[in-house]
Amino acid sequence: MINLYVYYFFNYLFKLNSNSGTVLEFIKYNPLMYISTFTLGMLLYDKIKNIKKRNIYSFFTIIYIIFLLFAPYNKFLPYNSTVISLSFIPLIVFLYLDNGFFSKFLGNKVFIYLGSISYSIYILHRPLYILFEKFIGEMRTHADFIIYFLIVFFVSNLTKYFIENKFYQYLCKKYLNKAV
């Protein structure tokens, strides 16, 4: 429901009577459009956080990855972006509950750091790509991709530390009455 209000707000703001692809791209990939998805993830975590972690979830993870690799070739279920997105929910749950190989592999400092900025990367990569194409041009070389990648990485770090962390601290102080 929130997504719908955000869409109508930006639709009104930009008066979309034209065929402006940039404005439509902005609305489609605006971070505010994904608040409900983020909230759903928090609710899922709240439901699974007390389940005991076990090594058996490494096995479930491997089986499920194999299933995901062959899922596009099935003839019974529709295969669109919504189905693809929803099919990763069990994988995320299995990885969270794992106490074996995947837990140790994904628990190193590099993956922890990348995980801490992953939401910013996810939300910002498309708007930054649109800006990159508008001001620098189409990506044609590996150097263009590296420049774009560094821009996304840098901006994601900035938003993580200056927006996400500040907002998190504010919410903790306001609603949990504890300093972070």
TrEMBL record:
Gene Ontology terms for molecular function: acyltransferase activity, transferring groups other than amino-acyl groups
Pfam hit, one: Acyl_transf_3
EC number, as in UniProt: 2.3.-.-
Residues that span the membrane, as ranges: 26-44, 56-73, 79-97, 106-125, 145-163
Keywords for the protein's UniProt record, in alphabetical order: Acyltransferase, Membrane, Transferase, Transmembrane, Transmembrane helix
Superkingdom classification of source: Bacteria
InterPro entries linked: Acyl_transf_3_dom (IPR002656), Acyltransferase_3 (IPR050879)
Domain Acyltransferase stretches: 4-156
Enzyme class: transferase
UniProt cross-references to PANTHER family, sorted A to Z: ACETYLTRANSFERASE (PTHR23028)
Protein name: Acyltransferase family protein
Record organism: Leptotrichia alba
